[in-house]
Fold these 2 entries.
Entry 1:
Amino acid sequence: MREVYAERGFEMGGLVLARNFGVVTWGSILAMLIVNVVTAVPLPPPDVAEYCNSEERCCMPRPYVGQPAHQFYPDPELPIRIRRPVHLLTDAEVARLERAYQLQKDLPDSDPRSFTNQAKLHCLYCDSGIYYPDNPWPLEIHNGWFFFPWHRMFLYFHERILAKLLDDDTFALPFWNWDNQTPEEPYANVLPISYAKSGSPLWNQQRNKCAEPPLIIDLNTIGGCTAKSPSVLRTENDRIMYTQVVSGAMSPQLFYGMPYRYGDAGGHGPGTFEDNPHGTVHLWVGNPDSESGMFDDMGNFGRAARDPIFYAHHSNVDRIWTVWNTLPGEQRKAPVDPDFLDARFTFFDENGDLIIVNVSQTLDNELLRFRYEQMPTGWVTNGQLPGEENSVPLCYRGNPTKTRKLIADTPYFKPSMVLHTVPLTFKVQRPRRRPEVGVEVLELSGLSLIPALQAHWEAFLFLPNGNNKTTVSCPEFIGTFNYVAHVGQALFNRERRWRVALGPKIMALGKENYTDVVITLAQFGPNIQPITFERAVVVFDTDGVE
Ligand SMILES: *[C@@H]1O[C@H](CO)[C@@H](O)[C@H](O)[C@H]1NC(C)=O
Ligand SMILES: *[C@@H]1O[C@H](CO)[C@@H](O)[C@H](O)[C@H]1NC(C)=O
Ligand SMILES: *[C@@H]1O[C@H](CO)[C@@H](O)[C@H](O)[C@H]1NC(C)=O
């Protein structure tokens, strides 16, 4: 059995993917697990033209008539394209952008480069659109370590297609600079005006009315409107960025996300930044009153790329990846696991031909011949030096006696603990032995929730009275869980884990000498539901340590 599968894995590494081999048996599932352990197989390039399963929503035109799939090689002759912030584009640049999208929207449905087909390609990769042979789970590029590389290349070809339609190789996608809280007009942290003009090729009807300019974005939203004032939003947005990208994302696993290997039921959990603010920006733009109840279009991954702002949003996501690479910390590097580097994805290039990209080819934007205009990144220090957050007063004032009593009075985590309307507080023992390297993290696993409903919680450290009204500006705030509902996770991955960095926060709170940590989770949103956890541990993440 094992040999058969190893052989098949080899076959799948080539271009030919056979259709379903028949019913999935326990034997075949077991065999896949064996393949995983014994002979790891990086994800082979899916044949997107032939094997789409989600006919009405995600499938691309068939029969496919372009060139057979070929390997991608970056073109060193391409001019370096500078991606600029949308809010600072000149009138001529906006006009060129509008022309490009109009040309793309005018392409016929038979052309895989058309705007509609681009949206379908995103859907295909995340909404139960494609299955590998003999694999019971749909391919899913969210919730794991392929999130950054896959989206980078999706945007790369999107940009090349627009450039080709304009017959202008210097064309660069702009980015929506929502992480920039500078209080000066034109504001970076509102939906760009050029994307908000009804009738423009950059406009989309299915949006949240509270995401119209000049309303400032709430990076910690659950969708819909907010009652927070502009100054509170600016402060909280900076804190979210700092927590999710700087203090909370010090290792490959924390930032890129958990592994996703061939045969897995999707990724084992998103990186901090994929979760929030990437996911929350989607929710903020989507229409909370959409018929599906899934915040169409942007708030529903199956439809998100039908809104042109998707591409400017993801351009900023990609830009923040380049910023993260420049932050200090010896663990801030890409995963080196071959199942990551050798995984391959299929796209359509500017000629409408199938093209296969290895993840290892996506990691350096300079090789891909694009870079980003420098913009202020106040959130990196958030007005303080990293690790010196004591200048912000704690929201839970204490002294050692009070802290010791709090720890004694708090129950240890027990399997099947449930977070529902009432915040959940528990303690977890820290490892006795502290390695000299690595970052201390809290890991919650065995999560069960309803995959068709969005879910959102906030986590606090030594803040037992934290609830869904507590501001994320409190230094005790350590991160969020933000799940954007989509049908691609119909078989919700029970192996999914949620990880959050504790180390820098424990130091900043001056709590490094206690044997336990007290954690509080508070859920909020329109769909508060019982969320069960089976396991909570504090471990040292040494990913990326040499
Ligand atoms: C892409 O990955 C495959 C195996 O996964 C490997 O054989 C091939 O050499 C790689 N190509 C490039 C350009 O990295
Ligand atoms: C923790 O213990 C060490 C060693 O005893 C001490 O130097 C340090 O000041 C303590 N930290 C706090 C916040 O009490
Ligand atoms: C906050 O939590 C309370 C229960 O503690 C709940 O009734 C309320 O709906 C929650 N508010 C939001 C916005 O989620």
Note: The domain at 42-381 is CATH 1.10.1280.10 (di-copper center containing domain from catechol oxidase).
Entry 2:
Amino acid sequence: MKRIYLDHNATTPVYPEIFKAMEPFLKDNWGNPSSIHWAAREPRKAVDSAREQVAGLFGCQPNEVVFTSSGSEGNNFAIKGIANSKKSKGNHIITTVVEHPSVLNTCKYLSREGFDVTFLPVNSQGMIDLSQLKDSITDRTILITIMFANNETGTIFPVDEIGSIAGEKGVVFHCDAVQAAGKLPLDVDKLNVDILSISGHKLYAPKGVGAVYVKRGVRLTPLIHGGHHERNRRAGTENVAGIAALGKACEVALRDMEKETSHILGLRDKLHRGLVERIDHIRLNGHPEKRLPTTLNVSFEYIEGESILLNLDMKGVAASSGSACTSGSLEPSHVLTSMGLPPETAHGSVRFSFGKSNTDEDVDYVLEILPPIVERLRSMSPLYAKGQTLNR
Ligand SMILES: *Cc1c(COP(=O)(O)O)cnc(C)c1O
């Protein structure tokens, strides 16, 4: 059977070039980079050069890069780290309703611990209102944490403008750039960010490694206390192989970004156009233009996204309903409902997310098999029969 992977926002395969970069540290170069003897030399060099490669993607100094175990850890580190280090100055945090659970639930946790959190709403395209952001800043505000691009819809936030607003008010700005890394330029100076997190496995490196940019002078209380690793910012013997892979992934991302983006964007738009031509009552979720080149989230009215996904899976196509983290739950996506989608429409959503290895043939195949699936599911749907009567 064909196997087509259209779920790159959930995770990406490890790219061969990146696997090669990590392999020596799973085999011969197994030393602890903190040791002072021969076994440490190669692993330490690998961590140092990976730090330079990540700094290259961020446009920052290598000593502003902290390695973590994941995007989730990076987000926790940033948010709890600022909350802890600045709690004497204030207790107000600003975020949005559409953040990844690793930001949303960290903020909810802090609100139970006595912090005051503003969750900015979004409009029907998943966009926040910058004047509302400005108005919600008070002299108690210590942190603004807003994602670069949404994992479910791909909507891209105006990070540079958010950064300027935060900067003018002297508020620390953290950006969850996990979905943007490798797809959009991440120049931290131009973006006016103080802290920014990325994750390896969304960027063709393996799971279990991530990095955070922490601007020089920004003080964060560590999440993990222990040894002096990462200049006392994150204890734990380094995941050398993962770090080497992440470094390589950042180098590859910088090198290939332009080429990959136009390839992927072409496929995404071809699928969208093809679906609109072949299927009625579908709705694009997310911003029509300011959207990740990888991401196409559409609602098929009157039917369940989950049923579509099961049928696609039987034909070898991997896609997702919103986010990997909420699948398995019967709740509609918090991102889509907060954009004002009725729960039925949110339930009917499917996210196709593209990556490096997808081809025109992949899109042709989906366009061949998906319309009959939708037609069959709708023919069994009482909602569809009712909707048709009402529309007549
Ligand atoms: C995947 C993802 C994360 C979490 O990264 P992990 O490495 O899986 O913990 C955080 N934010 C966004 C936007 C993501 O897509």
Note: The domain at 16-253 is CATH 3.40.640.10 (Aspartate Aminotransferase; domain 2).
